[in-house]
Amino acid sequence: MIATILKSSSTFSAVRYNERKVEHGVAELVAIRNFGYLQDAPEMRGITSLRNYLMDYSARNDRTRMTQFHAAISCKGDEYSKEELIKIADQYLNKMGYNNDGQPVLMYFHHDTGNNHLHIVTSRISPDGKKISDSMENIRSLKAIESIMSIDQKHQNSEMMKLAKSYHFESVSQFMAIFETSGYEAYIQDKNIYIKRGGQVQDKIAVKEIEKLCRKNGEDEKKRIRQLRAILKKYRDQSTSREELESMLKKKFGISIKFLGNEFSPYGYMVVDNATKSVFKGSDILGIKDLLQFQSREEKLQKVDFFIEDKLRENPLATTFDLNHDLHRFYGCYIKHGNIIMGKDKEELASYLVDKIKYNDKVAWVQGFSPVNEQQVRLLSKMFNVSSEHLHVEENGNNIHSTINTINEQLELSKDSSSSESIFDRLNDEGIWTYRFEDKFFCVNPSKREIVDLEASGIDMSKFKASRSADIETSEHKHSTGQGKTRPISNDIGSSDRINYNPDANRNSYGEVDDERAMIRRS
């Protein structure tokens, strides 16, 4: 375990460094403490807001220029987990004098190297405005880590031995595998099992004592073996390498694999199933050759294409959400922005599939208006250029009170206003589109996906019907003055970058519904 104090700064450049790592997907913010309003408002956090908060906090001491304290605590490989490193970091801050009530602290866990490590960012100024001592801090840092590890290691070793003894295992080697998959080394010498970590022997136990704890597999274990066989096969087919398989099993199920023999051509393996606290002989689950029979990325991606085609044949209106549910389950991938995303790899989806899925997403989005009768189905079909056969009536419909309230508010305001602005302009400014369709007036609120039959909803129709004899603008004028003010509709499900269901993209004007101009304004 190593603690490194990194370069100081007056502008908290460490925040930018760590947040950039988060953006690139190789780090995560695991602790934020004493950050005022930012504490419970993750949507407001960013490089600028976090840096500004730390600089404002540090300004209580105007004599110290380099106010940033930035340290990294790292271990060998995955010897210590994220949670363990956070606990160690807390103890480290305490010993270094940065544990005062009100001290702002950020912790970032990084996984961009082969060694787990955690970065700490805080201020060198304490809440009372005094500078926290940096005298001989590198020496104090070294002693702090040595002290923490000495105390922590003894306790951890004791707990690990208790835990290992509580597992079900059939042999001494399976018992040793529990340690070997938890960051320890284990070996037998002089009839004892020695447990080693960090280059030092941490514990030992007599082989005979462990032999007494060995038990044959019973019915529960045999049932679990069948479950593990299915799990290993499924995630083998989602992986392209041994490392990827091991990582996936550990992350999803707490399953660790101990391979036996040569690193590049193992002759066997053991499975440490931490969920059921059991260790199994690998060959009882799946032969080593079968386990390591990985498919190439190309083979897997080709299968994904065929899988999507099959799913669309089964359900011609399957959406991105529907497909991703099954893709994640069977192949460990998903589709986004017209691409298949598999781990860090990205492959373009066939264009005809992209178009089909985008259309299905649009249908699902339009259905979200919950039309209550066939007339509303026909209107939505024409507005958004989807087949009416792909939409259906929903008897209950949406709660449309929000849009009705907005319409009534604008009607009241138009009575009191001396402005010549029409009710249609007012509603359009609120993001509500007005249409005359099949001799009825409708208001459509895309942002809330609400459609209102004005007359049926008891709306005062006088200001709407007065426009029947008004000149109707051309679609060009209408779109330049009205449509541009409406918000684009974002795709909540996600195959396209944005679903901006602008009818002009599909026809000259979706305002022309049933051969009538839909958005009517007084000239």
TrEMBL record:
Bias (Polar residues) ranges: 481-509
Pfam families linked to this entry: Relaxase (PF03432)
Region (Disordered) residue spans: 466-523
Bias-annotated ranges (Basic and acidic residues): 468-479
Domain MobA/VirD2-like nuclease: 52-145
Cross-referenced InterPro entries: Endonuclease_MobA/VirD2 (IPR005094)
Domain of life: Bacteria
Protein name stated in the entry: Relaxase/Mobilisation nuclease domain-containing protein
Lineage, top ranks: Bacteria, Pseudomonadati, Bacteroidota, Bacteroidia, Bacteroidales
